[in-house]
Every structure is written in C-alpha cells, then in structure tokens.
Recover the amino acids of this structure.
C-alpha cells in the first residue's frame, strides 16, 4: 500500500514539474504579454498545486505526518494566482502595452474610445 | 445561512447537555438531529434550507477544479504545437451578477477557464473584458460555459 502511494506522489511531482516546464516554454514562445499571461497564470498554478499535493502525500504516507500548512498553501495559491494574472494584464493594458499584431478584436479599446472620460481619469 | 448554522450548532450543544456526554460523537449525533429539526421548521426562515447552499458551494468547487485541469490541457496544446496558429483578442461579456464577491468569483473562474483571461471590469460592474487565446471558434462555446458558471454562482447566492 505504501509503495502504491509513493508512486502516486512521484507521479504528482513529475507532472507538476512538467507543467512548470511547459509554462516556462510558453513564456518564451508566446508573442505578447497577454498570451504569456495565459501560460503563466494557468499552467504554473496547476503545476505548483500538483507539486505540493505530491509532497503532502509523500510525507503523510512515509512519515505519517499530516502537514496542514501544505494544504493551506495549495488553497492560497489557488485563490491568489488568477487574481495576480488579472492584475498584471490589467496594468499592462492601462499602460498601453500593444496587443500582438495578429490579434483580431479589441472591444475594450472601442468602449474606452466611446467614453473618453474614462481614459482621462487614468 | 450563517444563522441556521449557528442554530444547528446550538441545538447540538443542547443535545450534549441533555445526554450529559461531552464528546465529538455526541456532538455529531446532536448536529444530525438539529439538522432534521431545522429541515422541519425551514418555512420560518427568510433564506432557504442551508444544506442546499452547501451543496451549491461544493458543486462550484468541483467546477473550479475541472476547469483548471481542462484549461491546462488546452494551454499545453497551444504551447507544444510546432506552429503558432492562435488568433487572440479581447471581447466584452455582459454579466447579470451584481454583488462584488460574485463578480470576483466569476472573474476567477473565467481566468481559470480554457483560453480566457479577464483584463478589465467596467466601472459600473456590468461588463467584463476578456482576453481570449483563440477568438474565432471559442466565443460561442465560451458564452455557453459562462452561462453555466453564472448559474452555479447564482445558485449559491440565491
């Protein structure tokens, strides 16, 4: 039984490391801030959550040690990572960082141009 | 909802005092009987029976987890595909939700959905501006998903 759980925790950790690697690739490969943010805010969130889950399972099964701080860490990352992604892309948009030139649509720009008072406030 | 939970805990304590046994098991038994009592007198409360809302919250958490895994798979596909054939863009989404915490949860859910990221919320809290990884084929499907998210969040706050 312990051996099976060791394999499960190893699988979680490897999967998490793989996802973090893919998120790093995504940050290098994707063309602009907003698409990079997709990779950074989603893939690395799940990657770190899987790593922490694997660590939690390992210490619980191997040493019988229930580490509630890891669970709290998973919860905090899950709640804060999407907010961080949102704030970075919002700050980028408000400081006029251009979208990729192959972007097809920009509703936010249209709505800000139709209401100029909102732009002056920035 | 909070009042009903508090009342339930109170009833469990009364059960413990009646039995004169102060253990966790007695508390759980008393909590169960208190739940039955609250179910019986639910028409005297303003809000609905609180267990329904607890189930709605659990459903929302399950949706969160499923969307997180699905969005990771879709981002993975985009990054690892040799040719970069995405068409990103920003589109607007009207939302019916009104309270601030509902909009926050909706924005978090959308950020964890496959291929979408919230860029801005309009000052009147009526429109969300969403950056999509692939705008052409996704927009319709995304509107559908958002219908189900909004419904799940409304189910909690109803």
């Amino acid at each position: 039984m312990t051996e099976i759980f060791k394999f499960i925790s190893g699988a979680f950790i490897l999967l998490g490391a793989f996802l973090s690697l893919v998120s790093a690739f995504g940050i290098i490969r994707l063309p602009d801030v907003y698409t990079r943010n997709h990779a950074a805010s989603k893939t690395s969130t799940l990657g770190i959550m899987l790593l922490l889950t694997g660590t939690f399972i390992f210490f619980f099964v191997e040493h019988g040690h229930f580490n509630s701080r890891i669970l709290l860490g998973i919860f905090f990352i899950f709640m804060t990572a999407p907010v961080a992604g949102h704030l970075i892309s919002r700050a980028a948009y408000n400081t006029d960082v251009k979208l990729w030139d192959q972007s097809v649509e920009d509703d936010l720009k249209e709505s800000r141009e139709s209401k100029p008072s909102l732009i002056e406030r920035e | 909802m909070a009042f009903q939970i508090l009342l339930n805990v109170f009833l469990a304590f009364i059960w413990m005092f009646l039995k004169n046994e102060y253990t966790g098991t007695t508390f759980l038994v008393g909590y169960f009987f208190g739940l039955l009592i609250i179910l019986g007198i639910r028409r005297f409360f303003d809000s609905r029976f609180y267990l329904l809302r607890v189930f709605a919250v659990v459903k929302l958490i399950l949706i969160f987890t499923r969307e997180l895994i699905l969005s990771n798979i879709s981002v993975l596909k985009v990054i690892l595909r040799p040719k970069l054939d995405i068409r990103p863009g920003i589109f607007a989404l009207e939302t019916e939700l009104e309270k601030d915490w509902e909009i926050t949860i909706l924005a978090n859910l959308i950020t964890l959905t496959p291929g979408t990221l919230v860029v801005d919320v309009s000052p009147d809290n009526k429109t969300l501006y969403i950056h999509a990884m692939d705008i052409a084929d996704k927009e319709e499907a995304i509107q559908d998903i958002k219908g189900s998210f909004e419904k799940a969040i409304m189910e909690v706050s109803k």
Observations:
- Chain A has a mean pLDDT of 82.
